[in-house]
Amino acid sequence: MASCVFAGYLATVLMHLPADGLPPLKDFLPYLPVGIRAYAIYILAHNAYLNEEYERALGLCQSVFLMLDGCYPIAMEYLYCVIIMCLNNQKKHEEAREILMKAWNMAKPDGFLEPFIEHHGLMLGQIEACIKPTEPENYKRLSQAVIAFSRGWMDIHNPQLQSSVTDKLTSMEFSIAMLASKGWTNREIADHLSMSVNTIKHYLSRIFQTLGVEKREELKPFVNK
Asked: What span, in angstroms and rounded, lies between the C-alpha atoms of 174 and 46?
């Protein structure tokens, strides 16, 4: 029963669908193996993040690291991703970078890039800020995988926009579009990505032209669905 409830939450939350009708996952956590339990708490934290409950999501993730007895790299990588996402939305960017590099250095020896691929957009440009300058080849691999992943995601959630977004925007452009859609100023984006303000303006001009929009508010349907 616990495994079935876990699978139900896994499918609904990660597809950004409502979990209405499912029994509370928290009630079944004690019956799951430790590694799966840690991943199940990631699911709960991810759901809290989607509901903009950033403090709760952070608390859930941090509690797991306090209680883990041993290394469960898959669960830990996904938990780190939620921590990064929450810190970014709280504009604690330096802390987010520290966690990203900790997660990256844990994942890199095994080539376990999936968490970074799946959470690329929600990390709000941290991969561009941290990985691209120092590891361009790995960043290139990530970017190619992100495009493939995003294409499938858009095909399910927003098929009318799928071609425009995933075939025409690069990973960097997508990150800038995501930041702009959340109300970041050109200066904030430039500082975050270690670029000039003029470079960000150039990127945004190209993004607007590519997507056929005129202002930042119109970017939301392209990056958040």
From this structure: 21
Distance CA 48, CA 82 (A): 10
pLDDT tens digits along 171-182: 889 889 989 988
On whether the CB atoms of residues 90 and 56 are closer than 8 A, the answer is no
Distance CA 139, CA 120 (A): 11
Q: Using an 8 Å Cβ cutoff, are 131 and 138 in contact?
A: yes
- Rounded to the nearest angstrom, the gap between the alpha carbon of residue 69 and the centroid of all alpha carbons in its chain is 26
CB 140 within 8 A of CB 113: no
What's the CA gap between 184 and 197, in Å, rounded? 12
Distance between CA 205 and CA 214 in Å, rounded?
9
Contact 6, 32 (CB under 8 A): yes
Q: What is the pLDDT of residues 35-76, one digit of tens each?
A: 999 999 999 999 999 999 999 999 999 999 998 888 899 999
Reduced to 3 states, what is the DSSP secondary structure of residue 111? coil
Distance CA 225, CA 220 (A): 8
- Mean pLDDT for the stretch of residues 211-222: 86
- C-beta of residue 211 within 8 angstroms of C-beta of residue 165: yes
CA dist 95 and 206 (Å) reads: 31
The pTM of this model reads 0.87
Q: What is the mean pLDDT of the chain?
A: 89
Supply 22's token pair. Answer: 């499912």
User: How far out from the chain centre does Cα 111 lie?
Assistant: 18
